[in-house]
Every structure is written in C-alpha cells, then in structure tokens.
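User: Please fill in residues for this 109-position structure.
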C-alpha cells in the first residue's frame, strides 16, 4: 500500500475575527486565536474602556506582549478599535503625507 503524503494538503486561510473586549478575561480568547497563526484580530475595546480603563490597560498590555512574542503588529484605529496581526501581516501605522498640489478645498471642484 502506498501513501501519498502530499495528498492531504491543508489550506491555511487567513481569518479576520472580530472580538469585543468586555472584560480582562476576554483577552485570553483573543490570544488563543492569535496563537493559531492565521488570525487577524479586530478588537472593539469600547465596553471595557467605559467600564474599567485600568483593566483595559492590563488587557492591551497582555495582548501586546504576546503579539511582540509572535512577531506580529498591533495598532489602534480611532479611539475604540485595535487591530492585531500575526507575523506574516503588517499594519502600516504611518499615513503617507499628501503632496501640496493634492490638497484642494471643496470649492476647487
């Protein structure tokens, strides 16, 4: 009997998962998804931010440490969204500056 070792190709698809950070313990669910290696986490921190800013700081610190260990990227979007990527993806944190000729007012149109 021959076994073709290439016959079982497992496709690793990137998954973008949405998370709500309602309390500190929710960070464990996020970290488990990140450790799988193919998850980009989009985290809504609004609830915990309103409820307990100190717990939010602890949770984000924990997520950041794991992200750094996994060589990923973490970035905030606006005031209530945090995006965490694994090592193969990167969040561009700096917006390119617009050229002066690109700056037009609405009156120019």
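Assistant: Residues filled in for all 109 positions:
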């Amino acid at each position: 009997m021959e076994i073709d070792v290439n016959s079982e190709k497992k496709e690793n698809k990137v998954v973008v998962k949405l998370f709500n950070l309602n309390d500190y313990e929710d960070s464990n669910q996020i970290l488990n998804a990140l450790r799988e290696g193919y998850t980009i986490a989009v985290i809504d921190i609004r609830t915990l931010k309103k409820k307990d800013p100190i717990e939010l700081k602890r949770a984000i610190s924990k997520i950041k440490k794991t992200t750094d260990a996994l060589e990923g990227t973490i970035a905030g979007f606006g005031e209530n969204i945090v995006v965490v990527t694994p090592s193969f993806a990167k969040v561009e944190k700096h917006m390119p500056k617009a050229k002066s000729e690109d700056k037009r007012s609405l009156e120019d149109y």
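For context: The domain at 15-85 is CATH 3.30.110.150 (Translation Initiation Factor IF3).
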